[in-house]
Every structure is written in structure tokens, then in C-alpha cells.
Design goal:
heterodimer; A: 933 residues; alpha+beta; 7-stranded mixed beta sheet; 5-stranded mixed beta sheet; 23 helices; 33 strands; B: 278 residues; 5-stranded antiparallel beta sheet; 10 helices; globular
């Protein structure tokens, strides 16, 4: 299409719009010059600095950019600047500052912890404010309808609904809310410490902090699954375009063009060299002025592509040329755990069943696409980015740029969801390289398509479980075999291949067990870490086998699981035995009353449906899950630094990346409790690699447990030092008063410690402590025997749902969850983890499947919306782990492991149909029902 | 980032005649279709007052081309429009409903366009304006293929015209997808029905969407319903009636076989819902 420069309109009939557009923004008059056809989103975030309006998809699919236009919610990404001329635009932060309804919402969001990562929260606040202005909110359905256009990936929506109903002045729903308890000790349901900033739109995420003069990047990616490519004259291209600094390729990297997350598996380039191995793999990046790049046609730079044969599945790949040297048959690695003689165990069984599970790629779909900015500071480079693993990012960037580790600084921004994929390198390498070579600050945010094409995914799996039990139902043997599609590069594939055999028995006592897995390369985006590292996929097959055995025995499904649940003193598949802290039976017992009620309700509903001819069938399902916290049989230490400043403040260097799960709050609660001060007295310093020691990565449900232990040790250590300095007994109560620490012990006059009078340890602190914790584990032998984890968490969930047997649609009605968390550090945040985990498990079970080249957006790739998540009732079991801080275990991943198998169990209960492939989309459910007839 | 904002249909058509402009109304299809490409010069139609609003005449109900989904929901329309109102509440979220227009939905001509089956069931025609004159395309003639319409490059849609329905006509719309909100249909059905004094179907207009390149009216199935009582009789008739023009495909949302099977279920339920809704 040609720009109609010469097509001058006849005077008086057409008006070329004034390039300046005047409108009211949050009550003040503004003029914007970006051009009337610009997306309002870009104008608000760019020229007008309203970075509380978030860019989640740029296509109207997620609602993160919701603003009010003359009071009505619209997506700023779908609105032309010129269309708001003379009108009123209200942003989330403007609303919170000025609108009483938004103020009530903000308070309710905080009380209910309706924000986790906070990236969707501004859009939620804007849409909810519009609803509240209409009058009292009639109920949950009204809230769901009004907010249905905004996606959230963290919360599972229920706490948002509770907050809106509370603020909405209509009927509210019961539920746990933040206690006003000021101390915030371990066990207290306090609001997250960084929650207000998220709710008010002040939080700074990956794309929110770049300096105005930063250059931008346009990353060029392979449109083919597998192709050789050649560039033209890149220097001439850059020279021929004003505002373009240069084109970066692999040739520009001063260091090694490879990265990875597992030692020995660093096989991924940031720019492919001559041959792209998956669709969306980066081959070059154009560096230039932001406005020039946004006007650049996508095919401005010519790349010659020569498509090559590709394999998108392991079965295709195993007979193809290897993607990587030394990985014949494209097998990247294998996993194996063997205990006893599983073949004999199965042979001896009275009942034997085989269960299969096929799963697809699952996309993390955090609402914040990967983003950040970088600058060169002398001989160092500084990268501000959203991340789950600042220290690993630092090591990777140092290798890419050929710099010593000390020359790289990672400053994590707030992270708008991660779920595993923000452990890997995304924007960091490109930003660091561009800033390093140009000397200018450089920013980049992945587009939604870039994010979906190139980020890691949950491994597609093909699994087979065979299980046998004796006549009373005790398991005698179990085998699990699995093949995982690990994509073009290793990422966390080795972890998945190892974790699955370790967890494949489920939380049951199985006297004989054998599991073999392999991870196979294909021409797909790398599969990596995603909440559970393969265990959720394996649980689908193993839990289906448990249902099958219960059915063969004619036993109740929950009772069968209880009979076999692993107990204290029993060995797991790796030969580990725990004498305490094994709460599996307690989890199942906590579900018992709901289970019985749900069975009765389903039976009554189905009897009535048969009588009336209704196609709706109720079903109830149960599943268990377990998960080892921390790295598998590898060291994974966390270090916590803290200190008492000379002006009497306590500072906690909190290095556990908070990606919405709440580490900033939970680690502070643990530290404060150990120290003996209210959490409000603790000032937090974030995980900046220059000032905060390595607390490891936020993955493997390890932060509460591992970093929590380091924080507890640091709290105790600082407490001891303070007590020593004041010479008071161990049980003295501490308080901070006017720059001094006051210590009160019974029967003694109050003592005072004046930090200014102490010999300073260093510039920063009068007293500084640093404590490290590394979980005691041992390497696994060739049979997978050893001590893979120091702490295991246990879980069980019930799913209740309704199936339309004519359409195959499934509507979840209620979840009941029971989780052995050892000790609940913050029940409100823990509940948020459970609800969010269930929502992701629900998505995996019913709707989510990433198909390379076909579902690279948030309208073809479906994640649950407001109306899809039913209420969740959560029970916490406090088994008191001997290794965890104050007895606590991890939780993040445990909560989605039982969800998909519980849903499939309920579909089977409702219809008799065994679903062996997820997602159980309506056509697949209907086909399985049809096959029964 | 150029944009023109004409205030009359004539100005808009004159600009289109010059070439190079892409028409813009609610923006809910235009912007997403760009991906990362630069924004082309846009002809913003939302300043044309004459194309706004919904007017209810004696013979014709005129849905101005700038009427949004939210405008449809808010308008005091007869019950035959309930199907269109239901569709309007299921197009995207509130954000999209507040901006997106019904006319834009037909111009985008997606096989899964939510507005099309209800409009077919309402016998809606489409009014276009070009440099020479206005013309009206009869029901079903506007969309000609996947993402293709009978609109000439120098024309715009000015209104959707619906013959005033019988006050006794009742309607319903059912959309089938894999999640509750923000979902592209696997299949959808719309029904507008009238009954005789004994409760039998006297008139029926049925349409199916997302089961063929263009959403289809189903005249043979409509005929098969005449004289039937809602419920089992209607279900039986629809179980075997020919579904002319229905040719579903396999895609990421569902298989063709599934679509064929559920199309009949949706139609039967839409007829029931229409009857019960009245």
C-alpha cells in the first residue's frame, strides 16, 4: 500500500488531521505528537510515560492495556490515538489516585491478595473500576462478565473476584483475607510487602524502566522449522538506513555464541549460525532508533532462506540427521530409576492395568513478555530485566560477551510471571551485546509472537504406566516409560528426563519400580522448565493407572490411594526413607468429607439427568502429587546477607527472585521471625547481583525451603550478634527505637544497643551477617538410588465438574485441595499459589496446546479466563518438615501436579470415557464418549 | 502514522477513491491484523455521525455501521434480536465490545465471525456507499469467501438493514468454544423462530457459523421444522435434515467430524432456547 502523500484531498472536503492530538488524560489536558494512527498504547507508554498501562499482546487478546475511554473500558492497543481526540482517557494509576471506587478496589485487592506478579493488575483495576461505577456488583457472574476480557496467569481469578465483590458493595464471598497483624511472623496471613505498588500501577517491570534515549532492537527470526540462511550486505543495509546503527549477528559476539542452563548442555546460540533449527530462532538483530524500527517493514532486510526437512515429533526425529553432534538418534539424554524387580512385581499382581498419556507443548503465557534494557558502564555491562535467575543470567552473559563475571551486573526488575521459562536467557544476550558494542543504552521487549515462538515450553510427553496390585489393593509393582520432545536445544530437558523417573511412582509405596525416559531433539522451540519439570505429565499416566486399579478392584478411588499412600518410614523409589514430615495420608484424609459429599451429589445429579433426558453428567475425580524441593541430587545453595545499619535499620538482601509467588514477603517473614522483629521493620534490598548474594534460581519450589533456611539462619545470626553486643539473655525481645535496638528481657532493665557505638564492620553495616544453606542430598547411582531431595511436599486434589455428553464440553464446578506444606509461612499467599497452580493445571487438562506456527498468539493459544475457574477450597497440612525453615516445604509446583489427573478422573467418572490425550478439548472428549457407544 | 477522519460518507468515499487508505472503525480487527508491521495510513470512519446508532423504523431496523456490540446490547430491540445480543456479549471482552462494530465484523469476513449467523437468521441486508451511489446487498450476498466480501475498494458499509421482525419471533444464539470468555468459536448456531397458536414451529430461520468458509443459512432444515413441536420433534427433524453448504474443516480448535456432529446439536438447542426464551 502506498502512502497517499500526493493524493491531496480537496480543500474543505477532507481534513488531514492535526498531527498533534489533544485529549484529557486522568483529568489533565495533554497533547500527543506520535501521529493519529499510532496505537494509543504506544503513545501512553512512550510519549506520555503512562507505563502502568501494560502491553501483554498488542492484539486485544489479554486486556492488560485496558484504559477507560469516556468511562468505558477499551484496549489501548486497539485504539487509534486520533480516535481519542477531545475525549477523556483514564489510566489505572490515575484511577487509583483519584477515583473512590478504584481506591476501594485497591484496598480490597490488597486484603485478598488479588495481585500476584501484578502485570495484569492495572488492566483488572481499570475494568473493575468501570464496573463499580455502574453500582453495586450483583455477584460473581457479573464480575466475571465485566472482567472476562482481562487474562491473569497467576491467581486463578478467584481472589480477584472476591476483591471486586468486597469493594463492589453487593454480596461478598467468604474467604481468607489479609490479617492486619503488624508483626507478620511465620504463619501470619499478611498482604505481600510489594503488593501496593503492583495494585497502584507503580511497579516497574522489564519494559518499564528504560531510559528515554535507549536504542531499540528488531530481532529477525526464522520463519521455517529448519532452514539454512544467508544474509546480504548487512553493513550496506545499516549504512543505507538513517537511524539504524548496525545489524548484529553471531559474528559480532566477542565471546562464545552458546548458552544453556545445565553444565555440559550449553548448546543454544543466541543467533543461529547459517542454519536455524526451529521456527522463531533468532538469526540477527537490527539495532536502531525506536521510531525508525517500528516503521521498518518486516522484510526490509533480505535473508535468503533454504528450507530443510524438519521433524516436529520424537518419532520423526529419531530417524533423522542429528541436530547436534554426539547425540545420535537425536536423543539428548536418558533417565532411569530402578528399585527391586518391577517385572516380577507386575507378574505377581492380582490386577494389572496400563495407562497412557499424550501431552502437547504448553506455553507459559505469562502476561509480561520478556523485556529489559542494558547499558555499558565503562568496562562493565548492566542488564535490567525480568528474570527468575539473575545469577545464571549473569554467567550466561559473561560467556557470550567473553567478559569476567564481575563485569556483568544483572538488576532484576519486577517479573510479570515466569513459571519456569524466565529461568532461561531471553532478551539478556541481545541487550548486553547491543549495549556493549554501541555504547548506548538499549531496550527490547519481545512481542507476544516472539515470546511464544522462542521461549521454552512444557515438554510434550508420550507416557506409559503399568501398575499392578494384590487382591486387597496393595501396589506390587509399577513401571513408567516416557519419551519427551525436548525441542531444538537442551534448556532444562535433562532435568525433566531425570525428575520424571524419580517421581514416576507418585506418592505411593511401591515395592518394585522401574522407569526409563528419554528426551529427544526436534525442530521445535526448546522445551524447558515449566512448573513441575515433567512431573505433571507423568502424573497423568500414573494417576490414570491408579483409577484403573481401583476400578478393577471395585474400590473407592480415594480409599485405594490412601491404602497405598507413602508413609513415614517407607522407602520411596530412590530408596529414601523419611521418619517425619510425610503428610500424604493427611492430605487424603482432609479431602474425605468433600469426596463423600461430591460422590453423592454427582450420583443424584446424574440420576436426575437421566430421568429428564439432560445431556449433562456430573463427575468427581481425585489425584495425588508429590514433588521434591530443590535441585535433583545436586547442590543448590542460597546465601542471605543482612545487616544492622549504623542508623539503626535492619536491611535484608533478598536474592530470591520474586516472580509473583511472594518470595519478597515469605523470605522476609522467615527472617523477621528468626530475628525477632516485626516484618515491617525490615528494609528489603532486591536481587541485584552487585549487592545481593546468590540465592539461587526461583525454580524447583526451592525458595521458601532453601533461601528460607538461609534467611532463618541469617536472622538467627544477626539476633545473636545483637544480643551479644548488648549482653542480654537469648529470650530478650527486640525493638527498633530512634536509631537504636532496645532489648527487653523479663526481670531486667531494658538494654540498648546503639549501632553508632559499635565498631563498624564495613561501610554499610554496623553488624553484617551472611548465611548459606545447601540442602543435604546425595548423587543418584546408576539405578537412581540415593537422596535426590532433602524435602518432599505432598498433595491431593478433588475436581468436580460437569460434562455435556453431546458436545464434549467440560465445566469445572469446584476444586478441593489439600497440601502438605510442612508449615504455612503465609496462608494467604500459599492459597494464592494453590489457586493459580490449579488454574494452570486446568488449562493443561482442558485447553492449552502450543502448535509451532499455528498458535503463536493468545487467541489461538487458549489459557483459562475468568469464567473457567470455579471456587477452590484449600486445606493445608502442617507435617512439620525437619529440614525446612520452621518446618516449611516448597509449594509452587506441587499445586498443579494433581490437577489435570483429577480432572481426567472426574471426566471418566462422569462419562466412562478414558481420555489419554490432553488437552481434553471438546472434540476429543466427545470422540472418547462416542467410542464407548 | 497518517490518519484521515472524514465527517461524512461522501468524504470517506472520496478518500477511498484516491487509494492508499485502510478503513478503520473500532480497530479490533485492523490493529491485530498488522502484527509487527508498521501502521498503514488509516481512514478513520468513526467521525461520521450519520453512520452511528441503531434506528428502529416501522419496516426496517437500521444498524449504523459504527454501532458497536455494546450499542446492540443496549438498544431496545425486539426479541428476534436476542440472538444478535447474545453474540454481541460473547465477542471478545467488554473492551472489544465497546469498540468493535457489527459492520466491521462482517467486513472482516472471518468464517468464525460471531455476528454473521444471527444476522443471517435476521435476513439482514447490507447497505454500501461508493462513489456513484449507495447499493444494498441482499441477505447472504455480502460475504463471498474466507476474508472476502463484495465490497469494492472504493466502498464502505454504511449500515446493516434488518426487516422489522414479527413481534412474536424469538431467537437464540449458541457459541461453542474451549473456554468461557475471549474464545473463537468452534461452531455456532443462531435461530429465529415463530410458532403457531398450537405451539408448532410456523417459521424458522437457522444459520450455522464456523462450519463452512462462509456462515450458512439452512433452508432445508428450516423447512423440515415447519409444523414440528419444540423438543423431540424438532430434534428428530434436525438430526436428519440436509445441512446445505456445511463443509467444516479440521483446525487447531476441533476436527471436521466433530463440527458436523455438534452442528445439529447446537441447532436443536438454539431452537429450544429461542422458544423457551420467549
Amino acid at each position: 500500500m502506498t502512502a497517499p502523500e500526493d493524493a491531496a484531498p480537496r480543500p474543505g472536503t477532507l481534513r488531514q488531521r492535526d498531527p498533534d492530538v489533544a485529549f484529557r488524560l486522568d483529568g489533565r489536558a495533554v497533547r500527543a505528537r506520535s501521529g493519529p494512527a499510532s496505537r494509543l498504547l504506544d503513545v501512553l507508554r512512550g510519549e506520555l510515560g503512562a507505563r502502568d498501562v501494560k502491553n501483554g499482546c498488542n492484539a486485544g487478546d489479554c486486556g492488560a492495556c485496558t484504559v477507560l475511554l469516556d468511562g468505558k473500558p477499551v484496549c489501548a492497543c486497539l485504539t487509534a490515538l486520533g480516535q481519542v481526540a477531545g475525549r477523556e482517557v483514564e489510566t489505572p494509576s490515575g484511577l487509583v489516585a483519584a477515583d473512590p471506587a478504584a481506591g476501594r478496589l485497591a484496598a480490597a485487592f490488597d486484603r485478598h491478595q488479588a495481585a500476584q506478579c501484578g502485570i495484569c493488575t492495572p488492566g483488572m483495576m481499570a475494568a473493575a473500576t468501570a464496573l463499580l461505577r455502574e453500582g453495586p456488583v450483583a455477584g460473581a457472574e457479573a464480575a466475571e462478565a465485566a472482567l472476562g476480557g482481562v487474562l491473569c496467569r497467576c491467581t486463578g481469578y478467584r481472589k480477584i473476584i472476591a476483591a471486586i465483590l468486597e469493594a463492589g458493595g453487593g454480596p461478598s464471598i467468604e474467604g481468607r483475607a489479609a490479617s492486619p497483624e503488624a508483626k507478620g511472623q511465620v504463619g501470619a496471613a499478611i498482604a505481600r510487602l510489594d503488593g501496593q505498588a503492583k495494585i497502584a500501577g507503580r511497579e516497574v517491570f522489564g519494559d518499564d524502566g528504560a531510559p528515554a534515549n535507549a536504542l531499540a532492537l528488531k530481532i529477525l527470526r526464522s520463519p521455517h522449522h529448519h532452514a539454512r540462511f544467508r544474509f546480504g550486505d548487512l553493513k550496506a543495509f545499516a549504512a543505507g538506513h538513517a537511524g539504524i546503527d548496525r545489524v548484529l549477528t553471531a559474528a559480532d559476539l566477542p565471546g562464545e555464541n552458546r548458552h544453556g542452563v545445565i553444565p555440559g548442555f550449553e548448546d543454544q546460540p543466541i543467533f543461529a549460525e547459517g542454519c536455524a533449527r526451529f521456527r522463531g530462532e533468532a538469526v540477527a538483530a537490527i539495532l536502531g532508533e525506536r521510531d525508525i524500527l517500528s516503521d521498518l517493514s518486516p522484510d526490509a532486510l533480505t535473508i535468503e532462506w533454504e528450507p530443510l526437512p524438519h521433524a516436529l515429533t520424537p518419532s520423526e526425529a529419531e530417524s533423522m540427521e542429528a541436530l547436534h553432534d554426539n547425540r545420535s538418534g537425536n536423543v539428548m539424554c536418558r533417565g532411569r530409576v530402578v528399585r527391586g524387580d518391577a517385572a516380577a512385581g507386575l507378574q505377581a499382581a492380582e490386577h494389572r492395568v496400563v495407562a497412557r498419556a499424550e501431552t502437547g507443548f504448553v506455553e507459559h503465557a505469562y502476561l509480561e513478555p520478556e523485556a529489559g534494557w542494558a547499558q555499558r558502564v565503562g568496562d562493565r555491562v548492566e542488564i535490567h530485566c525480568c528474570t527468575q535467575a539473575p545469577q545464571m543470567n549473569r554467567e550466561a552473559v559473561a560467556r557470550l560477551l567473553g567478559l569476567p563475571l564481575e563485569a556483568v551486573r544483572i538488576v532484576p526488575t519486577a517479573t510479570g510471571g515466569g513459571f519456569g521459562s524466565k529461568l532461561d536467557l531471553s532478551v539478556q544476550g541481545y541487550l548486553a551485546l547491543a549495549a556493549w558494542v554501541s555504547g548506548r543504552p538499549v531496550r527490547h521487549a519481545f512481542s507476544r509472537q516472539e515470546s511464544m515462538q522462542s521461549s521454552t515450553k512444557r515438554h510434550p510427553a508420550s507416557l506409559r504406566t503399568e501398575a499392578g496390585c494384590d487382591a486387597v489393593g496393595r501396589l506390587t509393582g509399577l513401571t513408567l516409560d516416557g519419551v519427551f520432545n525436548t525441542g531444538a536445544y537442551a534448556s532444562w530437558g535433562p532435568t525433566v528426563a531425570n525428575r520424571v523417573p524419580v517421581h514416576g511412582s507418585g506418592p505411593y509405596y511401591v515395592p518394585s519400580y522401574a522407569s526409563h525416559t528419554r528426551a529427544v531433539h526436534t525442530h521445535c522451540a526448546p522445551s524447558g522448565a515449566f512448573r513441575g519439570f515433567g512431573v505433571p505429565q507423568a502424573a497423568i499416566a500414573t494417576e490414570a493407572a491408579m483409577d484403573g486399579l481401583a476400578e478393577a478392584l471395585g474400590q473407592d478411588r480415594l480409599a485405594f490411594r490412601r491404602l497405598n499412600a507413602i508413609r513415614a518410614g517407607q522407602s520411596n523409589a530412590c530408596g529414601q526413607v523419611f521418619e517425619t514430615g510425610v503428610g500424604m495420608v493427611d492430605c487424603l484424609d482432609a479431602l474425605a468429607s468433600r469426596w463423600q459429599a461430591g460422590l453423592a451429589e454427582a450420583a443424584a445429579a446424574n440420576a436426575a439427568a437421566v430421568t429428564s433426558g439432560s445431556p449433562m453428567r456430573r463427575g468427581i475425580g481425585v489425584a495425588t502429587g508429590w514433588y521434591g524441593c530443590g535441585n535433583t541430587a545436586l547442590p543448590n545453595p542460597s546465601t542471605i546477607r543482612a545487616g544492622l545499619t549504623r542508623d539503626g535499620r535492619i536491611v535484608l538482601h533478598q536474592g530470591a527472585a520474586d516472580i509473583g509467588q511472594g518470595a519478597n514477603t515469605v523470605i522476609a517473614q522467615i527472617f523477621a521471625t528468626a530475628l525477632g522483629l516485626p516484618v515491617g521493620d525490615i528494609a528489603l534490598v532486591g536481587p541485584d547481583t552487585d549487592v545481593t548474594p546468590d540465592a539461587g534460581k526461583t525454580s524447583a519450589s526451592r525458595q521458601t525451603f532453601v533461601t528460607g533456611n538461609a534467611a532463618r539462619a541469617a536472622g538467627l545470626s544477626l539476633r545473636r550478634a545483637i544480643l551479644r553486643g548488648a549482653n542480654v539473655p537469648d529470650d530478650a525481645a527486640l525493638s527498633l527505637e530512634e536509631g537504636r535496638v532496645v532489648l527487653r528481657a523479663e526481670g531486667r532493665p531494658a538494654a540498648t544497643l546503639d549501632p553508632t557505638k559499635l565498631p563498624a564492620e564495613n561501610d554499610a553495616y554496623a553488624i553484617e551477617v551472611r548465611e548459606t544453606y545447601d540442602p543435604p542430598t546425595s548423587a543418584l547411582d546408576a539405578d537412581g538410588q540415593g537422596a535426590p531431595y532433602a524435602v518432599w511436599g505432598y498433595a491431593a486434589q478433588i475436581a468436580e465438574l460437569e460434562v455435556d455428553i453431546e458436545l464434549g464440553t467440560v465445566r469445572p464446578l469446584r476444586f478441593t485441595a489439600a497440601h502438605d506444606v510442612g508449615r504455612t509461612i503465609n496462608p494467604l499467599l500459599a492459597e494464592g499459589q494453590v489457586e493459580g497452580g490449579i488454574a494452570q493445571g486446568l488449562g493443561m487438562a482442558l485447553m492449552e496446546e502450543f502448535i509451532p506456527g499455528r498458535t503463536e498468539n493468545l487467541h489461538d493459544y487458549l489459557i483459562p479466563t475468568f469464567g473457567d475457574m470455579p471456587p477452590v477450597e484449600t486445606h493445608f497440612i502442617e507435617s512439620g518438615d525437619p529440614e525446612g525453615p520452621f518446618g516449611a516445604k516448597g509449594l509452587g509446583e506441587h499445586c498443579l501436579i494433581p490437577t489435570a489427573p483429577a480432572i481426567l478422573s472426574a471426566i471418566r467418572h462422569a462419562t466412562g470415557a478414558v481420555i489419554e490425550r490432553v488437552p481434553a478439548t471438546p472434540d476429543r472428549v466427545r470422540a472418547a464418549i462416542r467410542a464407548l457407544c | 502514522m497518517q490518519m484521515l477522519r472524514p465527517e461524512s460518507v461522501e468524504e470517506a468515499v472520496a478518500a477511498l477513491a484516491q487509494g492508499g487508505w485502510r478503513p478503520l472503525a473500532g480497530g479490533t480487527d485492523v490493529y491485530p491484523s498488522l502484527g509487527q508491521a508498521p501502521v498503514p495510513p488509516l481512514l478513520d470512519l468513526t467521525g461520521i455521525a450519520a453512520m452511528r446508532g441503531i434506528s428502529i423504523g416501522t419496516d426496517t431496523i437500521r444498524i449504523g455501521a459504527l454501532a458497536t456490540w455494546s450499542d446492540v446490547v443496549a438498544a431496545p430491540l425486539p426479541p428476534a434480536f436476542d440472538a444478535l445480543k447474545t453474540a454481541a456479549q460473547q465477542v471478545g471482552g467488554v473492551q472489544v465490545q465497546n469498540a468493535g462494530t457489527v459492520a466491521g465484523n462482517i467486513c472482516n469476513a472471518s468464517p468464525a465471525a460471531d455476528g454473521v449467523p444471527p444476522l443471517l437468521a435476521l435476513d439482514a441486508s447490507v447497505e454500501l456507499a461508493g462513489p456513484a451511489a449507495r447499493r444494498v446487498l441482499p441477505p447472504g450476498a455480502f460475504i463471498t469467501g474466507v476474508r472476502q466480501t463484495a465490497l469494492h475498494a472504493d466502498e464502505i458499509v454504511t449500515a446493516i438493514l434488518v426487516p422489522s421482525p414479527d413481534p412474536s419471533a424469538r431467537s437464540a444464539f449458541l457459541k461453542l468454544g474451549s473456554r468461557t470468555h475471549l474464545v473463537i468459536s468452534i461452531a455456532m448456531a443462531a435461530a429465529v423462530v415463530q410458532r403457531d397458536p398450537e405451539g408448532r414451529i410456523a417459521k424458522a430461520r437457522l444459520a450455522l457459523g464456523a462450519c463452512s468458509p462462509i456462515a450458512q443459512r439452512l433452508p432445508e432444515a428450516e423447512t423440515a421444522l415447519i409444523g414440528r413441536l419444540p423438543g423431540a420433534e424438532v430434534g428428530d427433524a434436525l438430526a436428519s435434515a440436509p445441512l446445505d453448504g456445511i463443509a467444516p474443516i479440521d483446525d487447531v480448535r476441533a476436527s471436521a467430524q466433530y463440527r458436523l456432529e455438534v452442528a445439529r446439536v447446537l441447532l436443536a438447542r438454539a431452537v429450544s432456547a429461542a422458544v423457551e426464551g420467549g
